[in-house]
Specification:
Layout lengths: L6 H14 L13 E6 L10 H19 L3 E3 L3 E2 L4 H10 L3 H18 L10 E2 L3 H17 L2 E11 L4 E3 L4 E2 L2 E2 L7 E10 L5 H6 L9 H11 L1 E11 L5 E6 L10 E4 L6 H5 L5 H12 L3 H4 L8 E9 L6 E7 L10 E4 L5 H10 L7 E2 L19 E2 L10 H14 L3 E7 L4 E2 L1 E2 L9 E4 L3 E4 L27 H4 E3 L6 E4 L3 E2 L8 H4 L12 H7 L4 E4 L7 H14 L12 E3 L3 E7 L5 E2 L4 E4 L2 E4 L7 E7 L10 H8 L1 H10 L7 E2 L2 H20 L17 H24 L2 H17 L5 H18 L4 H10 L23 E8 L2 E9 L4 H10 L1 H4 L6 E7 L4 E8 L1
Parallel strand pairs: 1-2, 1-26, 3-4, 12-14, 26-27, 28-33, 34-37
Antiparallel strand pairs: 5-6, 5-9, 7-8, 9-19, 10-11, 10-13, 10-18, 12-15, 13-14, 16-17, 20-25, 21-22, 21-24, 23-24, 28-29, 28-32, 30-31, 34-35, 36-37
Length: about 850
């Protein structure tokens, strides 16, 4: 064994051994329970950051633990490789996105291997490879045949200069983020998937997801947004048309005094056409439509609107109500229009107050009557209907059904269920994505690409300029083709899929990544799926994780798989955070550019004081990032892994702390030295004979098995790696101070060190594998069984009892472990130190049992 712990030597040796022997390659084994652990795969940006390290360390520790507990573990890795960053890099470097992407994959694969993660690299996938996206093209065509995929005209953000569609997040201050050109709204034909057909199942499916965090399920429920209510038709004045609204409060219909409509609503131009403020309305519509849709609906977003010049007619009372374009109404949600009842909805109240719109009270509370002219907020509680024609005097909860029935009798309304969820728009006018497998023929119309012609492959000899729209539209040999039905000249669709498509089914492809007869091998999917533990950030709760579940159900209904849900359990790991630093002029500084002293924090280059900002999520834009590579080179991968797991519970944010990282390295050094110092005991110590153990040896053995029990529970049930590691650190202190006086003492120490090597190995695998081998054991450590707990060793001969008198500790006692509560109380009362503080009569005695550490609390008065 090396006298000095040298991480680079140890880690490179074991990484090569694992790689050369394909130790983590796995296949189906019906004789073992399977365990499928999956972390959300990364975008190949070229560099891992500490957020990656933490996420993948959590998954790797679990995978290694499950292997040692006898499971057949599938732990795959791949690359979410399509997307705009590669396209932007191609524009900047005048190269093909594939060159940049595959170079980054190569770099990141090396980083993953340098961290010693236990991936089955034989299953590696890259979503940009035609052998992968071929199958999502096939599944899209299957959906098209079943009516689950369709094309319709939709308003989009359009950059006139680059001739491309922009997502909301790509519009900055109303301009294209790439070229700065002002963005306009334009109607385009877009492909959609009917995720709304699965809205109800996506909700009821939550019953199967008992292992998912409640906040994620709540976010999904809110995003899907199931509401029971009424659809009501409002005729439009002067137009042979109507607007349908959905409301959960039909009982307030008589109080609707205006209508709020989404700026993107198709009727908007007709509503303001020929009106005096037509230009002003269209300018408002254009400005609001460019804003982020999530921010528009936020509670703290300023509510803006403009009168369109149009009017609707309230079907309940014939009232002529003005129609406003409002920033907080989205066309994608509901019907894109809202009946506004300012007296009984706070948002409508604020809007009406701002724009001087009348308020009418139609629900009176039981008590003091409301006066609309003096109200300072909307009344939203229960009450009695007033100013509501035939429904006056009706309790409003009863009124909801009665008004709906009344509207249905007049054919202007009906009871319905509404979902906030809208169909998934998957069209992107980009190059670096999966091509839509559709051909357009003048005679035959929209023609699916035949299965035998899949995949439709992205061309390789393309120079992407970032201008003139989709690059595919300018590649003649791609666009121009022959209609597969009539043989006449035709054109290919030049859109590509949203990259969320690739990440919606990758978990299934991992089960049989080289299968050539379909997207998945059904038998292998049946063995491995569902994922037993999925790990990723909570920020994916309402996008990826909904699409992830939706696509699983689609593949089930297409006959490829049988399961309803893709993952049994979900862990949403916390973020890695760090302080932010700036110069006096506001320039962001990297941590290595500042120096901390007792007098403050200073910019190394200028020597001037640096501004210390908030602790925030590590972000390249704010320079508060720590690159793992230099740390790995200096301290080793095991140290970096150990800190990532030790710094905080996995679902909580983890604040980066250089001192704690160094502390983890010191712990590993101490562990290495202790095992090395006692290496000659392994293989020499006699068989353990518990009957011959002294008090100190029994105490160490008890702590060892308690630690094993705690670590197993922490990892298995709660993912609390941090507390498991803390228990091992505490046990290391005990083991270091233990001085064997006999051969049986030596046997106890060997047992302790052996169990520690095993228990620590999922978190710090390289050092533990090295210690296992160097102490004479055969076979790899990761193939050894997880330690069993000897229940008899957990029994203590004595227990610690603290004695309080009026809240202050007055004595510390060691008493037999089988002492009763009465015996603990009696011993406490008889203690001389306690008696000196009992100057007043005892009012009550409380005995608290806490395993080894117990408390007798005496209250004297």
């Amino acid at each position: 064994m090396e006298e000095t712990y040298k991480p680079s030597v140890v880690e490179s040796r074991w990484q090569k051994t694992w790689d050369d022997n394909e130790v983590f390659r796995v296949s189906e084994d019906p004789d073992k329970p399977k365990f499928y652990v999956l972390e959300m795969f990364p975008y190949p940006s070229g560099k891992l950051h500490m957020g990656h390290v933490r996420n993948y360390s959590i998954g790797d520790a679990l995978a290694r633990y499950k292997r040692m507990t006898g499971h057949n573990v599938l732990h795959p890795m791949g690359w979410d490789a399509f997307g705009l960053p590669a396209e932007n890099a191609a524009i900047e470097n005048k190269t093909h996105p594939a060159v940049w992407t595959y170079a980054n994959i190569e770099a990141m694969r090396k980083q993953f291997k340098r961290l010693g993660f236990s991936y089955d690299w034989s299953r590696e996938i890259a979503t940009c490879h035609p052998k992968y996206y071929r199958w999502e093209q096939k599944m899209f065509l299957d959906m098209l045949k079943k009516g689950l995929a369709y094309k319709k005209t939709s308003l989009v953000n359009w950059c006139p200069h680059d001739q491309t569609v922009l997502a909301n997040e790509q519009v900055e201050n109303g301009c294209c983020w790439r070229c700065g050109t002002e963005v306009v709204q334009q109607e385009l034909d877009q492909w959609f998937l009917k995720i709304t057909d699965y809205a109800e199942e996506l909700l009821t499916g939550h019953d199967e997801l008992g292992g998912w965090p409640e906040p994620v399920l709540t976010m999904q429920k809110n995003w899907i947004g199931k509401s029971y209510g009424s659809e009501i038709q409002f005729e439009l004045e002067g137009l042979d048309d109507s607007i349908t609204v959905f409301t959960t409060r039909p009982d307030t219909l008589f109080g609707a005094t205006f209508m709020s409509v989404a700026p993107e609503h198709p009727l908007m131009k007709r509503l303001c056409a020929g009106k005096d403020n037509e230009g002003e309305v269209l300018a408002f519509v254009d400005r609001i439509a460019k804003q982020d849709k999530f921010k528009r609906t936020a509670d703290d977003m300023e509510k803006e609107g403009i009168f369109t010049g149009g009017y609707a007619v309230n079907p309940a009372n014939g009232r002529r109500i003005p129609i406003y374009a409002a920033n907080f109404v989205l066309y994608e949600y509901g019907t894109g229009a809202v009946m506004a009842v300012p007296a009984h909805d706070q948002r409508d109240f604020e809007f009406a107050t701002k724009y001087g719109i009348e308020k009418v009270v139609v629900i009176q509370p039981n008590g003091d009557a409301l006066d609309a002219s003096t109200m300072d907020c909307a009344y939203t509680d229960a009450g009695t209907m007033v100013n509501s024609g035939p429904f006056d005097g009706t309790p409003n909860e009863e009124g909801k059904a009665k008004v709906t029935e009344w509207l249905a009798e007049r054919s202007v309304g009906k009871q319905t269920i509404n979902y906030r969820l809208r169909d998934w728009g998957i069209s992107r006018q980009r190059f670096w994505g999966c091509p839509v497998p559709v051909i357009y023929c003048q005679d035959c119309g929209t023609v699916p690409v035949p299965d035998e012609d899949l995949p439709v492959v992205l061309p390789e000899d393309v120079v992407i300029t970032g201008q003139d729209g989709s690059p595919l539209a300018h590649v003649d040999k791609f666009v121009n083709c022959t209609c597969p039905q009539c043989g006449k000249p035709a054109k290919r669709d030049t859109d590509t899929f949203d990259t969320f498509v690739e990440s919606s089914w990758y978990m299934l492809r991992y089960c049989s990544p080289r299968f050539e007869e379909g997207p998945v091998d059904p038998d292998k999917v049946k063995y491995w799926m569902p994922v037993d533990q999925y790990i990723g950030g909570i920020e994916h709760a309402v996008m990826h994780l909904i699409y992830f579940r939706f696509w699983n159900k689609i593949m089930r209904d297409l006959g490829y798989i049988t399961g309803d849900e893709p993952a049994k359990n979900l862990l949403t790991q916390g973020m890695v955070t760090l302080e932010t630093y700036r110069t006096e002029d506001g320039t962001w500084l990297y941590p290595e550019e500042v120096k901390k002293t007792p007098d403050g924090v200073f910019h190394l280059e200028s020597g001037k004081p640096a501004q210390v900002g908030r602790v925030e999520k590590m972000s390249k834009s704010k320079h508060n990032v720590v690159e793992p590579n230099p740390l790995i080179e200096r301290l080793g991968a095991d140290t970096v892994r150990l800190f990532s797991l030790f710094a905080a519970p996995p679902d909580k944010d983890c604040q980066w702390d250089d001192e704690s990282v160094e502390g983890c390295h010191r712990f590993l050094n101490r562990f290495w030295k202790l095992v090395q110092r006692n290496a000659d005991l392994f293989g020499k110590a006699p068989t353990l004979n518990v009957a011959k153990l002294g008090k100190e040896a029994k105490a160490l053995r008890r702590k060892t098995h308690l630690m094993s029990q705690r670590a197993t529970d922490d990892i298995e049930r709660r993912f609390q790696y941090n507390t498991a590691i803390a228990a091992m650190m505490e046990l290391l202190n005990d083991a270091q101070s233990f001085k064997p006086k006999s051969e049986q003492d030596q046997a106890v120490l060997v047992e302790t060190l052996t169990m520690m090597v095993k228990l620590l190995s999922p978190m710090a695998p390289h050092i533990c594998e090295e210690l296992w081998q160097s102490t004479g054991h055969e076979g790899m450590l990761l193939d050894q069984a997880w330690p069993d707990v000897d229940e008899s060793a957990l029994q203590a001969e004595s227990i610690h009892v603290g004695v309080q008198v009026n809240g202050k500790i007055r004595a510390e006692l060691e008493l037999p472990a089988d002492s009763t509560d009465d015996q603990l109380e009696q011993a406490a009362k008889e203690n001389e130190a306690v008696q000196r503080h009992l100057t007043k009569p005892i009012r009550k005695v409380i005995v608290i049992r806490r395993g080894d550490r117990n408390l007798v609390n005496i209250v004297a008065k």
